[in-house]
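User: Hey, quick favor. My workstation is busy. Could you predict this chain's structure for me?
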Amino acid sequence: MEAIVTHKNTDFDAAAAAFAAQRLYPEATVVLPKSLNPNVRQFLSIHKDFFPWSLPREIEWETVNRLVVVDTNDWKRLEDVPFPGEGAGPEIHLWDHHRNPATIEPAWEHCVAVGAVTTLFARRMEEQGISISPIQATLFLAGIYEDTGNLTFPSTTAVDAQAVAFLLKRKADVEIVNTFLRPAYGPKQKDVLFDMIQNAERTKLNGYTVSVNACDIEGHTEGLALVVEMYRDILNVDAAFGIFRDGGRKRAMVIGRSAVDDLNVGSVMRALGGGGHPG
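Assistant: No problem, here it is.
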């Protein structure tokens, strides 16, 4: 058996890469974690007939002889995927675009520093003449657009733009993509941003201006990444971190945003057990 897996808190790039990988590994089963980003879960629920997947608990992992890992090179970011013992376990193929040190040792890898890992699959499918449907092209385009900020983030490369052109030629629906990538911003997000601004503090660290802000939230709140982005812009700091404490669920979520290349918030997030890009 072959299985395709990706990181928990699955975003569009990770989900798109998993299903794009299935075009290259047609015998493989896509296995997604329970923790999908809300907009990803909504898209896949609407189009479930086109994008079937399994949960980790539904897989007999001892029968998996090839494991395709996409959009992460860290075992800790895989949800309920058993860590193979030394000299044991499946053959691992790794597709990634992150630059952080790896904890996964693959038998084969294709890791390139591009804006989105889905880009690597789109380019490979174009090179091999693999056909894709308009709805597949739409999901793959959402993955690239989300991780490159519609080709505006500093990590964007010419290869990402070429992949976007390929997907648009395959009838990717930009209107659908924009609908699912449009961040939620309503009264709840406004209240969180207002609370953050009321308690805002700036700190000088090694010549950079940084703001770390902790606030309480109740239950799941969408759009917090956008709130932190707006908070950083309003305070005009080099980097901002939001610590959102949910007392009811006894958990906290940390989101960082940086506008300076030398301030890599992705490495800070990895120190906390998460991940992400430099910005």
